[in-house]
Automatic annotation (TrEMBL):
Keyword list, A-Z: Acyltransferase, Transferase
Keyword check for DNA damage: no
PANTHER family on file: N-ALPHA-ACETYLTRANSFERASE, N-ALPHA-ACETYLTRANSFERASE 50
Any one GO cellular component localisation term in the record: NatA complex
GO biological process, one term: mitotic sister chromatid cohesion
Protein name, per record: N-acetyltransferase domain-containing protein
Keyword Transferase attached: yes
Domain N-acetyltransferase, first and last residues per copy: 10-165
InterPro entries listed in its UniProt record: Acyl_CoA_acyltransferase, GNAT_dom, N-term/lysine_N-AcTrnsfr
Amino acid sequence: MSPRQERAAIEFGTVNEKNLVQLQRLNTALFPVKYNDKFYQEAIRAPDGFVRLAYFQTILVGAVMVRFESNANGSSRLYIMTLGVLAPYRERGIGAQLLDHVFELLASHPLCSNVSEIALHVHTENTEAIAFYKNRGFEVVELIEKYYKRGVDPPDCYLLSKKVEPRGNGS
Ligand SMILES: CC(C)(COP(=O)(O)OP(=O)(O)OC[C@H]1O[C@@H](n2cnc3c(N)ncnc32)[C@H](O)[C@@H]1OP(=O)(O)O)[C@@H](O)C(=O)NCCC(=O)NCCS
């Protein structure tokens, strides 16, 4: 087992028109799917805190982007669209800090008071990410075949989910 490295001290940043291209480059390096302009415009307009950039010594090394989704039955979930850390900066606690930010949104953001689930899709071969989420209370709830349209082999993913207790409108 490799020696435990010092937990990286990161600073969080927000996304804007000026640094949007940096987020695009980061995601291109991290994910097999290419996100379109609509995705990045959604990033700019996202509610406060729903997109967080992670800087290590002024270098953009990771980011998280979530979306609020409400169901017809009145329940709602937070969907993690992207959460990633550049490979040289992994295993230093940065991914965990990004996920902790999502948990903090759940605990305090006004939009999240009725959220009962956090969900995301992960490529079936992405054992690192699957282990990362399982270690933090997520479960595989579905195998979705042919989820990816192109460039990903196999094109299948898992839907991962973590149930959470809605905190209600009182807080
Ligand atoms: C999944 C992912 C985000 C994890 O990021 P990360 O920065 O490596 O995450 P962490 O460092 O917080 O945790 C990863 C492991 O490193 C270990 N680790 C954390 N801090 C450490 C330290 N200081 N020293 C040594 N190991 C450490 C942890 O034990 C953790 O393993 P665990 O799950 O057993 O706790 C990263 O692998 C990634 O970006 N993958 C590509 C993008 C992707 O597929 N995202 C998922 C779909 S959205």
